[in-house]
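Schema walk-through. Below, the input block comes first and the output block second. Nothing else is stored per chain. Lengths vary across the set, and this one has 278 residues.
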Amino acid sequence: MNRETEEVKHNKPRVAASSYLNSAPLIWSFLHGERQSEIELVTDTAPARCAQMLARSEVEAALVPVIEYQRIPNLVVVPHVCVGARSRVRSVVLVTREEIDNLSRVRSVALDISSRTSVALVQIIFREFLSIEPEWTEHAPDVAAMLSVCDAALIIGDPGMTFPRERVGVYDLAELWRKHTGLGFVFAMWMAQEDMADQIRRVDFAGARDEGLANIEEIAALYKDRVGLSFNDIRDYLLENISFELTEELRAGLELFYRLAHKHRIIPEVLPLKMISE
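--- output ---
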């Protein structure tokens, strides 16, 4: 969408991010730290909603599921910063009924409506690596309700770490991706409309990430009651499971993900990543 930028030139850009725990180190500085004056931060529970807000030009930038780069026109990506995982991610999982002892037996999957990238990832895992095409159904993120109608349930974010583990099988999707590709996986990145690139370039997203990571203990104390995990669980999750820097390996995993998404007709074409600084 073409827009006049004059009305926002002298104002702080509006930026959307998920309120999930895995985005906390990326937004802590904007909420509590040295960069509170840089942006107007809009937090929303679901990553899918952030993508929707960016597509509708309701915000100038957002922390967006990476699959949406291939779907929303005229986006640019903030370099160096991401929400990814080198191996086990913990917060993006496929849950199966107790009697399903192997993923090859899954015939139906309930997909968390909060997700975009993880939906594409689980479809690629079944089609490319398992040669299976289950029946796909969208569902609100409630594991018990999802498993009452399907063999398996995709659940993401904070709910993906806090549901009861009794009498179910749990498969970590980043771990499965690593097993089959040898690469890490990127779930989300900061993105902006291309006509907002000059304004968003002035926001120090990498510096905000570094300040957030330097304050992990404060984040863990703030979030432990909110998400229902212990202080140590949160600290370990953010420091050991989530990767917040777009390394060469993670970028290679992202580019492979895009190629496989195109191969399996999840996206119509593969657009090369256009970084905001390039």
